[in-house]
Amino acid sequence: MSAQIDQVLAQAANDPDVMETQEWLDALEAVIEKEGPDRAHYLMERMVDLARRRGAHIPFSSNTAYVNTIPADQGEHCPGNLEYEERLRSWMRWNAMAMVVKANRVDGDLGGHLSSFASLANMLGIGFNHFWHAPTEDHGGDLLYIQGHSSPGIYARAFLEGRLSEDQLIHFRREADGHGLSSYPHPKLMPEFWQFPTVSMGLGPLMAIYQARFLKYLHARGIAKTDNRKVWAFCGDGEMDEPESMGAIGMAGREKLNNLVIVVNCNLQRLDGPVRGNGKIIQELESDFRGAGWNVVKVIWGSGWDELLAKDKDGILQKVMMETVDGEYQNYKAKDGAFVRKHFFGKHPKLLEMVSKMSDDDIWRLTRGGHDPHKIYAAFKVAQESKDQPTVILAKSIKGYGFGKAGEARNTAHNTKKLDDEAIRAMRDRFQLPISDADLPSIPFFKPSDDAPEMQYLHERRKALGGYLPQRRVHADEKLPVPELSAFQAMLEPTAEGREISTTAAYSRVLTALLRDPNLGPRVVPIMVDESRTFGMEGLFRQIGIFSQVGQLYEPVDKDQVMYYREDKAGQILQEGINEAGGMSSWIAAATSYSTNNRVMIPFYTYYSMFGLQRIGDLAWAAGDMRARGFLIGGTAGRTTLNGEGLQHEDGHSHVFASAIPNCIPYDPTFAHEVAVIIHDGLRRMVANQEDVFYYITVMNENYGHPGIKPGQEEGIIKGLYLLNEGGKENKLRVQLLGSGTILREVIAAADLLRDDWKVDADVWSAPSFTLLARDGQDVERWNMLHPAEAPKKSYFEQSLEGSEGPIVVSTDYMRTYAEQVRAFVPKGRSYKVLGTDGYGRSDTRAKLREFFEVNRYFVTVAALKSLADEGKIKPEVVAQAIAKYGIDPNKPNPVTL
């Protein structure tokens, strides 16, 4: 007797009153039939609640049976022409395969993925044919986060639609010449096609959640009508192991984002093997999402299982379904019907009897829910009509569906990109492609004539939904005027004598002035991650309010204060809590609103600099891919300005990270006028000109006086370097001192020491962006290399300094690498010495930290004198005197090693 029979008998044996149990079950069955499942659920919840209040221990479970959530008799059937849709999917499967295999026969290292689309094809087909709207006058369009590895299938569909050419398909993953197709969804590389990047894995679901919430934000503030739009995100079950994938599902449930649908393609496999070989990933995800307040729809079994489940009066089939682990399910689909009969149905005699009249081929044709158009349609319909919850659809599928022995349901499926002739022939036969044996070796793309009924159907379905998807808007239709720089006049003027402010305060005042602008003010999106008070920005709470879909259901504890915490249904601030990834995802949604919503928004995401690009670097890279436009503000920046917080709080490297993102425009300003000029330039480029760039600006919390702007300095600020103070003419020796951020003030002080103590005059340069200086220099260097017969150009850095005298010394609050970027563009014959804060941060006073990292005025002075000594203009003994005079220990350890 099997273990399953033993368990069933044991269950009955442990029941002290079988008849009473059956009476309760019959009563519940009657309620379901006469009053519906909602009533039954209500009664069960009341009984459980009563039992718990009376002291009964009833363990909580957020799992349901391992069957489809939508009963067979309640799901809506797909209204489309399923014969046409099946043929269209078959052609897409073939063309996707041909695209990848052709590419790898040209160059075996190009790669590509076939298995993900093979398992997703039915789901994507149902969505494209029946659910997903393109932007029209009446509908803003649905937003699609396509599973990254399924891109070949999306290209195959666009090819049939006539949106992509055969030449483009032939050049899949060969895009350097500008006419190929990108490996994954990349708006940067295909700006009119892909809406969003969804790789690295995990970023798609995270960004989709905040995108859905941003649609609610726009609607609540009256900026755009978004109540009829949905965000759909497709991801793999293995991808759900990424912390980013699951990290924000609680927010989506809490915010009741009924405009959000996540479809998890549960093909049970990741790259190396099973996702949960010893468990059940669908049950695990159901528990997580249901507990977070989501509407969970499981699509596990295809229609062929309905009759078997209807016969399962004793629940034996469901029990075996639940007890079978994913590793076994994977194995079943890698074998054949006879194997499934023996090892699955053979787990209980009644199950063998249940399928006794079915052939092995009949058993093999029992599909999984993710490949059944009716089951998928029913699930999508439920998601589409969700009233007060986000929906997750857990659809069970087969990885590599259609590849047979070449990779179907096998551990190697994810990496399958090369098929031999036998596998290609088998695929042709399985999907009934009208391709002759003679033509098979060339793996031809298949596209029927435009008047074929299937092709007409394809176009009719998209016409009914407003047009083709995916598609991306490159520029917003609206034109918003940007105010003159004089709108920030207060920040352009010198601070009053004795008055000191930080660049953070300067930024806050520029932001406040911008919020008051009648044209741009409503489009500003301040985004905070629980640090408003750190940056002195809590005044915005009352001024513009914090967005909340329910308003403020309580009286804030600080209501009697001027700057109390005010939540509002039309609030303008997005407060994300202690959540940098969420803050960045909200910023991305706002920074790409010009494309997704045809509304220009101006997001300012302000955060602890150390917890910015270091923590969300992958999202920042994705923002570049998405052609985001907005401002990232790294507060309390620099290694030595946040003096009391220590190693994990002090940023000396974010500008190095920012330099790696080509369309990120980074600045490290020192003075209020620089902050104003930089932000105004960003508005000009991103709002007025609609350029696809975003700005990273570091600001500090150190207070000091500001000199105000001088005429003509604007261009140098924007380019990254300008002469701040010209040194005197009294002395024979001269040096050039450069700096940025608060360390520029140490450089200014060093100029005084050089003059007063060593009779050396120094010109002081403010360098708000060494990265922009380096990019300009590299561009000029490239031009000169490719135009050898023409007069060479000079970089802006070289032009600025070539007329000056003496060695060049730089000190910043960042790693030496930051300022070392421009070494190649130093005027010929000039020495270039860089000081920086390499090493881990630590807690101490600002003065002590700058001494520790060797970037303060005394080290700048010593570096300048050493450079003069190296040029033979002073004796080395003078440098030694300076070291002694300023109390520097020449044997102190290198800070990078401590």
**Amount of beta strand:** 5-15%
Total number of helices: 36
Largest sheet: 6 strands, parallel
CATH architecture of the largest domain: 3-Layer(aba) Sandwich
Note poorly predicted spans. 1-10
Q: Kindly state the mean pLDDT as a whole number?
A: 95
Count of folded domains? 5
Q: Helix proportion of residues, in percent?
A: 40-55%
CATH superfamily of the largest domain: Thiamin diphosphate (ThDP)-binding fold, Pyr/PP domains
Describe it.
GO terms for molecular function: metal ion binding; pyruvate dehydrogenase (acetyl-transferring) activity. It is an enzyme of class 1 (oxidoreductase). With 898 residues, the protein is of the alpha/beta class. It folds into 5 domains: 1-54, no CATH class; 82-302 and 367-465, Rossmann fold, CATH 3.40.50.970; 307-366, no CATH class; 498-698, Thiamin diphosphate (ThDP)-binding fold, Pyr/PP domains (Rossmann fold), CATH 3.40.50; 724-886, Rossmann fold, CATH 3.40.50. It contains 36 helices and 18 strands. It has a 6-stranded parallel beta sheet, sandwiched between helices. Strands 1-2-3-5-4 form a 5-stranded parallel beta sheet, sandwiched between helices. It has a 5-stranded mixed beta sheet with strand order 14-16-15-17-18.
Give a brief outline of the structure:
Residues 1-33 form the PH domain. It contains 36 helices and 18 strands.
Key features?
5-stranded parallel beta sheet; alpha/beta; 898 residues; 6-stranded parallel beta sheet; Rossmann fold
